[in-house]
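Re: that backbone. Tokens:
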């Protein structure tokens, strides 16, 4: 079960990268201050996807109320869909303002998921903190790209 839970967000991220064309235009767009080099993104996202997978695993095997687990996993699935959508809009469509709004929705989805997960397993909720922080930083970068391009 653990490996399947890890594989799901990794597969979602990999598919989104494939369908969006990856970060091909990242080097040529104007970027805001503090923009990391391109190689940082796949490293960070791989770590975050594993943390997401571990968090979902902990919720799945928490032994708590099934309805509560299902609600938490639905919130997780919704935010994972937004996570999938963002690179398609940002890199694939180069719709930077639209992508920023997708990131806002993603941030809210992560926050809701953290709350739901924490009710079932406190560590599961805590495992999503780096993800929320990274998406906050990504929001700054996304808005900066929109304003500069």
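Recovered sequence:
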């Amino acid at each position: 079960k653990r490996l399947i839970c890890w594989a799901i967000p990794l597969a979602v991220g990999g598919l989104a990268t494939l369908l969006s064309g990856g970060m091909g235009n990242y080097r040529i767009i104007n970027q805001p201050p503090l923009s990391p080099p391109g190689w940082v993104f796949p490293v960070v996202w791989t770590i975050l996807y594993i943390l997401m997978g571990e968090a979902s695993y902990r919720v799945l095997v928490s032994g708590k109320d099934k309805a509560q687990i299902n609600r938490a996993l639905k919130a997780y699935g919704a935010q994972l869909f937004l996570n999938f959508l963002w690179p398609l809009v940002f890199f694939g469509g180069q719709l930077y303002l639209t992508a920023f709004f997708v990131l806002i929705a993603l941030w809210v989805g992560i926050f809701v998921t953290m709350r739901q997960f924490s009710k079932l397993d406190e560590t599961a909720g805590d495992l999503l903190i780096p993800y929320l922080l990274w998406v906050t930083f990504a929001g700054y970068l996304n808005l900066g790209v929109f304003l500069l391009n």
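The chain has a mean pLDDT of 96. The first helix runs from residue 2 to 20.
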